[in-house]
Amino acid sequence: MSQTYQVIGTRPVRHDGVDKVTGRALYGADFQATGLLHGRILRSPHAHAKIKKIDVAKALALPGVEAIITSVDFPDPGDRIADLGEGAIKVRHLSSNCLAREKVLYKGQAVAAVAAVNGHIAEEACKLIQVEYEALPSVTEVVKAMQPGAPILHADLVTESMAGANGDQKPTNLAKHLQYKLGDVKKGFADAAVVVERTFNTATVHQGYIEPHNASALWNADGTLTIWCSTQGAFTVRAQVAELLQLPVSRVKVVPMEIGGGFGGKIRVYLEPVAAVLSKKTGKPVKVLMDRAACFEATGPTPGSHIRVKVGCDKNGKLTAAEAYLAYEAGAFPGSPIWAGCVCIFSCYDIPNLHIDGYDVCLNKPATSAYRAPGATNAAMAMETIVDEICEKLKIDPLDFRIKNAAKEGSRRADGPVFPRIGAIETAEAAKKHPHYTAPLYDNGRLAAELAPRGASPAAKPRGRGVASGFWFNIGLKSSVAASVNADGTVSLVEGSTDIGGTRTSIAMQLAETLGIRAEDVRPSVGDTDAVGYTDVTGGSRVTYATGWAAYEAGKDIQRQMIEKVAVLWKVKSDELTYEKGAVKSKSDAAKQMTFKEIAAETHKHAGIIVGRASVDPPWPGGAVATHIVDVEVDPDTGKVQVLRYPAVQDVGKALHPS
Fold it and tell me: Do the strands 37-43 and 110-116 form a parallel or antiparallel pair, or are they unpaired?
């Protein structure tokens, strides 16, 4: 049954829009404070080397330099493992990624940091720091890093394997081996009329956010630490910094600034602990900025990968079996999104027989980070390419093939979970019905003749049309909000999810819908870690779902309080009242009601402040599926690809703000 909404599905102006388009919004680099020092980082010129000696004497003697730190200024992390927002991680690895310890493991790894009265002096001081290295052999290709005799990055790293122990457990670059099985793959391939097997190699790709990494810190005389930064998760930063510097989380406050893009790449800390220790050493606030080169050299890209896929299909176009071998680059430290690659590679399809092996591999590159469905995009490219080849061999329409083989409610993923209702069939059917799919390939409003010089015969460039499907599972996790009702009938909403895509507005809209008021009457803000309850990272496509759920529950809390207030005013029992469409009404007398604004004004007269609160930890939502169509034109001389037309069909549930 369809539901009628007043706010959801409309297109209000984004609450943060005016400040951003006028330049008033404050980003990390805009932070200012009295006595502010400026920090810069010295980075390794080697991909792999022992650090034999660091001499900072000349740099410290430079006028204007107030402090220099190296990894010895960080607490010894020991061998602790902690879950700091993106799964379990070895604290030593995170610490070494902020300032290298015994070795550098990639070109650009941070080695030392300087705080000076301005950035120019700090940069000059970095040049004066003398580091003695012993260069070591390096490995920067995932397949070579897995081979016997490859240079070993970590002497204490042995393979964690789902498929059994790694023999004699010698040091290796292979951090993890995942394996998933379903059905009988050997029989599935025997039943296939067509089998296609291909190998794919993908390169690392940086997220390319417009705003470089930044962090400012003030280690106060009372022992408390405040950090200002652009991050996808203020509580995640708090957890990482507290763990690295061995502080209670109650002593660390993180203030999220506006964020100029993240896409998954602004979750791990790089500069925050460095700025904190520099501040502790100088007693002054310190701001540390990366330039663009440092972002590319030292912060996590999506992993390069080596993927081998084998798929079997019967003569009727029904998938019978599939195998996948995925080796993902973790970079210098374990932790590539190999699990997501394994889970997502076949999840658009209902395949009875599956075998998947996934490998997390260390090599001399920056540690990889999330980047928009991390791990899934590499895998989708491989599988969808093979699906298209099968369709060509069997002469089956590629969307008909996807409809016939689509995962649906009850389909089991290779890693175990059974799907609830998902939209794989529906997105493929909608794509097939789209006018683009039935339009001629060259009917894109750009005839070849229009592109050619007058009088010349059209020089048509090769054009093609493709379709592809993709899967992502989304997550729930913890979110908190608080909503205060003001005397004028507006609501001040404080939430803990940093806003990287307009979520202030989507959360405000869900609260407004629950309360029956206008979206413009909700004033949302993102709180610091002392201002709102614990909230997990903005990532995994979770905020609209989980923080929206918290906003809904906070709205229901406000409804309950308003019913209680009106019950006192009317001298009736609260169960005789109901909340509907922005008003408290009598169940027995439909004409008797008080509107939201009236209740807000009345309760403020009597010091009856209403604050709604909620903290939620919802279960994982159902997976999301998409099917896209694209027409492209390729220049055979340069290889440049131009996108001509691109409809995307997404299983979004309800689009809160269609724009």
Answer: antiparallel
